[in-house]
Automatic annotation (TrEMBL):
GO molecular function: inositol monophosphate 1-phosphatase activity; metal ion binding
GO biological process: inositol metabolic process; signal transduction
Protein name: Fructose-1,6-bisphosphatase
Annotated keywords: Magnesium, Metal-binding
Organism: Roseovarius lutimaris
Co-factor(s): Mg(2+)
Length: 291
């Protein structure tokens, strides 16, 4: 493959397959997620990398149901779930080598879910050799979803069959930009360098849920999402949702996003001007090579 060859913009799933995918996610939410919301026993919640990195029975059971259903629908695809990677980390490395991979985040925003906050979602990303080509960001509480693929614009769908396109914001001057940043997940030295620069923006916060952060970006409610923790189940779907809603998604050093990348900072923004303003504003404060 040479760089001069164009990448064909074709959907990895037909319209019927996308409908089947959405229905599978909705069934898993009804069967395994929502019955456990605000109904978890103490033994249903455990930790992974630390006290704030939680996993629940809903995560495990929803991922199992989704993985089974997706493997039946796409028998030749590599199916990779967040909890499966926790048990076998080498699975993450297989994504970038797969012609078709489907990545599952069964309950994104598990901390919110475990604490009874109705701000969580299900994320499904489809990648070709690590490049996102389809993303689904599903809200089990509202029973609606953002979906995008590389052949069609990002749109918001709901259970009654309504669907409408979404569009990112128009961006603006640096002092007018608001967005989400995973500040608390960054290294201490990065936080110390970055903190003084946050005052130059209108508002910077985090929802502890990438699903809803990217949904807000794709619908124009915020201007950017920035993260230095590059778990593909958190970001691959959001990248294509941003791009197909008219936004820009790149690593802060200018690289195109790919699930193979594990170091650096991903910046998704409303447009090129806003992306560049943010890149220049944060250059040198994150140790990412963007200076």
């Amino acid at each position: 493959m040479t760089d001069s060859l164009p990448i064909p913009l074709t959907s990895p799933m037909t319209s019927a397959q996308q409908t089947a995918l959405i229905n599978l996610v909705r069934r898993a939410a009804r069967a395994e997620i929502m019955p456990r919301f605000r109904n978890l026993a103490q033994g249903d919640i455990t930790t992974k990398s630390g006290p704030h990195d939680l996993v629940t029975e809903a995560d495990h059971q929803a991922e199992a149901m989704l993985a089974r259903g997706l493997q039946r629908m796409f028998p030749h695809a590599l199916i990779v779930g967040e909890e499966a990677v926790t048990a076998k980390p080498s699975l993450r490395e297989d994504i970038s080598g797969a012609e078709l991979a489907i990545i599952i985040d069964p309950v994104d925003g598990t901390w919110n879910f475990a604490h009874g906050l109705p701000l969580f979602g299900v994320i499904i990303a489809v990648t070709r050799f690590g490049r996102p080509v389809l993303g689904l960001l599903y809200d089990p509480v509202a029973d609606d979803w953002i979906i995008a693929d590389e052949a069609t614009p990002t749109r918001l769908g709901a259970a009654l069959g309504s669907e409408r396109p979404t569009k990112v914001s128009s961006g603006g001057a640096l002092s007018d930009l608001q967005g989400y940043m995973h500040f608390s997940l960054m290294a201490q030295e990065q936080q110390e360098l970055l903190a003084p620069r946050l005052a130059g923006l209108a508002r910077v916060t985090a929802l502890r849920c990438s699903c809803h952060e990217y949904r807000m970006l794709a619908q124009g409610a915020v201007d950017f999402v920035m993260s230095g923790m590059l778990n593909p189940w958190d970001h691959a779907a959001g990248v294509i949702a941003c791009q197909q809603a008219g936004g820009i998604a790149m690593m802060l050093d200018g690289r195109a996003y790919n699930t193979e990348i594990s170091d650096g900072v991903l910046l998704c923004a409303a447009n090129q001007d806003s992306w560049t303003r943010l890149r220049d504003h944060f250059a040198g404060s994150l140790g990412d090579g963007s200076e």
